[in-house]
Write a structure and sequence with these properties.
The protein has 424 residues and is α/β, with parallel strands linked by helices. The chain has 2 domains: 136 residues, Aspartate Aminotransferase, domain 1 (Alpha-Beta Complex); 262 residues, Aspartate Aminotransferase, domain 2 (3-Layer(aba) Sandwich). The chain has 14 helices and 13 strands. Strands 2-8-7-6-5-3-4 form a 7-stranded mixed beta sheet, sandwiched between helices. Strands 9-10-13-12 form a 4-stranded antiparallel beta sheet. The longest helix has 22 residues.
Length: 424
């Protein structure tokens, strides 16, 4: 047995989190072998307990119908309230600052309606160049809604020449120079393409010094980095639950609203489910928001798309955020070491410093995009599931809840084989 594989197996055997892997569904190849699944940054694996969670709700629907709103084993009216404290524990914030609802982009639109309020010369929005398209689309439409031109009012900060990453110093410098123009900063916790994790408190301080509000897209942070909102004076944040939170395709999302913005008079797009609960079913004519982030709800949410999150969050509580982060750093470091030794023509564009990245490595292969696509297609056809992002990036994310060191070894070994096969 080669030393690297032997080391991987030894580390898996000593891993206290290893038993959790058996509580997830692992995709299999046509031959029936487990796939090497490194795509948790795109869609997390299914917690096997999710089946029972959904079945319980289906059973209660069949058994109780409308009475399930109050008498289901987990009553449907306060269903999402039970999730807020669990999600808040992952985020490092107060439970009343969290609302579990909608999808990520719907929540972003709701937050922009409340927090993007251009006035006078202060009307620009700052984002990173190469932001996830949905975020950019949302921001551009809000600018247009206010009669503004995104070409003038959407500031897209790019990395310095010949670099892949954006330094926090560049954000601070831009805000110091142009802060009087900026109404809002929207920044990712982890950049989806490069895997760069940002110092969010530092960005929030810079935005507030400039007089701007700040929101964070935590789609690649929640369940990946521990407590991304701890001691962070963000005005709002949004995220999805189908990546590292493993809640299933199209699962429920969430938003954070800082307690300093709880005033009932705050401008918002209101809906019945955001009305305070004591009088909600009295059908009052005037909207009275529920306290905290709950006042930003619109409608009752899908129970069936929310139930799997209970199964996943139970595993997070069992694992503990500290142990998950420790293993995550070890997995990406092991991958980085093996790639450097065995496939030097592959370069990671993700930061080398463990504190500046999450569970993802974004890899660029020498030889151009066509070579990279061939390698990715070969990997997919041979049971290695990572993903391709234009123009030339393969993203691989060993998620510590269910991935192990043998997965990392097999990924690198298959990449070696892919290079030989596609170049031949």
């Amino acid at each position: 047995m080669e030393p690297a594989l032997e080391s991987a197996l030894e580390r898996d055997a000593a891993d206290p989190l290893r038993p959790l892997r058996a509580r997830f569904g692992i995709p299999r190849t046509k031959q029936g072998d487990p796939c090497v699944y490194l795509c948790g940054h795109s869609l997390g694996l299914m917690p096997l307990a999710a089946r029972a969670e959904i079945a319980q709700e289906l059973d209660d629907w069949e058994r109780l119908a409308v009475l399930g709103h109050e008498h289901a084993r987990r009553p449907w009216i306060p269903y999402h309230d039970a999730l807020a404290p669990q999600v808040a524990a992952l985020l490092g914030c107060r439970a009343d600052e969290v609302a579990v609802m909608n999808s990520l982009t719907v929540n972003l639109h709701l937050m922009l309606a409340s927090f993007y309020r251009p006035q006078g010369a202060r009307r620009a929005i700052l984002i990173e160049a190469g932001a996830f398209p949905s975020d950019r689309y949302a921001l551009a439409t809000h600018l247009q809604w206010h009669g503004l031109d995104p070409r003038e009012c959407l500031i897209e900060l790019a990395p310095r020449a010949h670099e892949d990453l954006i330094a926090e110093e560049s954000i601070e410098r831009l805000l110091a120079q142009r802060g009087e123009e900026v109404a809002l900063v929207l920044w990712p916790g982890v950049q989806y393409l490069t895997g760069e994790a940002f110092d969010l408190p530092r960005i929030a301080r810079a935005a507030h010094r400039a007089g701007a509000l700040v929101g964070f897209d935590l789609a690649h942070s929640v369940g990946n980095l521990p407590e991304p909102l701890r001691d962070l004076e963000a005005d709002f944040a949004v995220w999805c639950s189908y990546k590292y939170l493993n809640a299933g395709p199209g699962a429920i999302a969430g938003c954070f609203v800082h307690r300093s913005h709880f005033e009932p008079s705050r401008h918002r797009l209101a809906g019945w489910w955001g009305h305070e609960r004591a009088s909600r079913f009295q059908m009052p004519h005037e909207f009275q928001p529920a306290p905290g982030a709950a006042g930003f709800h619109l409608s009752n949410q899908s129970i069936l798309s929310t139930a799997p999150l209970f199964a996943s969050l139970a595993l997070f509580r069992e694992a503990g955020s500290g142990r998950l982060r420790e293993k995550s750093v070890a997995l990406t470091s092991f991958m980085e070491e093996l790639l450097a030794e065995r496939t030097p023509e592959i370069r990671s564009v993700t930061p080398r410093a463990a504190g500046a990245r999450g569970a993802q490595l974004s890899l660029r292969l020498s030889g151009g995009p066509e070579r990279g696509r061939r390698v990715h297609q070969w990997l997919t056809g041979h049971g290695v599931l990572c993903d391709w992002r234009e123009p030339d990036i393969i993203r691989a994310a060993p998620a510590p809840l269910y991935n192990g060191f043998e997965d990392v070894f097999n990924f690198v070994a298959r990449r070696e084989e892919a290079l030989r096969s596609t170049d031949g």
